[in-house]
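Long-time lurker. I teach an intro course on protein structure, and each term I like to show students one example going from raw sequence to a predicted 3D structure in token notation. This year I'd like something fresh instead of my usual example. Would anyone be willing to generate the tokens for the chain below so I can use it in lecture? Attribution to the forum is fine with me.
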Amino acid sequence: MTDAPGPESELTLTNVRPWGSAPRDLVLRDGIIAAIVQAGTADTAETHLDGHGLLALPGFVNAHAHVDKSWWGQPWVPYGGEPTTQGRIAHERAHRDTYGIPNLHSTVAVLREFLRHGTTAVRSHVDVDLGVGLRGVEVVREAAAALDGAIDVELVAFPQDGVIRRPGVLDLLDQAAAAGVTSIGGIDPASIDRDPVAQLDGLFDIATRHGTELDIHLHDGDELGAFQVELIAERTQHAGMQGRVTISHGFALGQLPRSRQVELVELVHAAGISWATVAPVGHPPLPWPAMRDTGIPLGLGTDGIRDLWSPYGDGDLLRVANDFARLHRLRTDAELAQAVAVASTRAAGFVHRPAHDLTPGARADIVLMDAENVPDALMRAPRRELVLAGGRVVTRSGTPQV
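-- Reply from a regular --
Happy to contribute to a lecture. Here you go:
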């Protein structure tokens, strides 16, 4: 039995329960799910793996991470600084060099943690600023290459310290876009740069010239946040960038009165904007049912993991999905399964996949775990017994194989 079939090989994953269904055999060919048949009926003359009746889910998609900033695998770093966005930025800038951030070792380590927990694709913001330049982009690319393609990594060049208030950052974002990052980012145009028009002018100019996407962190709350959502939606439509803009966090949407939420949900949908959340404890829930029913793409992410912003996080997106379910008071089995889908199938667009599921034609990213059904897996987050990425075993018994 071969654990890591080559790009031209065929593998049959036998006796698994996709989404908790009856047992099936999955025929994988060239890294793609070629067929799904009743268990015991696939031709297993080729290489095969016995799934032992385990629950099968699609690989998880981390729609919002910061893999360049973790100190995972290094000695513990005490939390410090002022607990505000501006305070966290200042603290990080003052201390990141002390801890060697960014560095290849920690970035590889945190990507391996993603794999260990079943995440097979990640959309990571990478700091681009006057102090670090484009070094973080280079480090993350090198880390992804070191794992030999086991995890798909898309990059967002992210101006954590602001754009307009730091002359030269727009040039760096332009360079990153020219160097092939998928997206460029922004952050709180009103409260960080105090000039939302100038920040959005600069970002949309770069994105339209280079054909990149945009992902804007929006921490500002209440009507200040709502105002910026409106500006971003207007710019998106004016630039013809529907389907290419994401708002991350967007705490304001959960803080506003119901009638105002409805207005913004309709506006975001009309502009074709996606939304990424980390389901933060202590923040009001998003109007998720309205977002879901309207068709706004919603992705879950881990945000930073053991970095100078927060000591929390272990890279397990299933735990983030659990937080999402608790925050939004999901209870029924159908609702709990939807939370897991937000962490997997529903996030396909964040990593540019037309489909990401246990279906023929989809990339063979598969997670097996010992759970009765999907709600049970969400509640317990059991060990990932087997993780396949592109038809290749990348994690076995909770241990990465790359």
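Some talking points for your students: The chain has a mean pLDDT of 94. The two ends are 18 Å apart (CA to CA).
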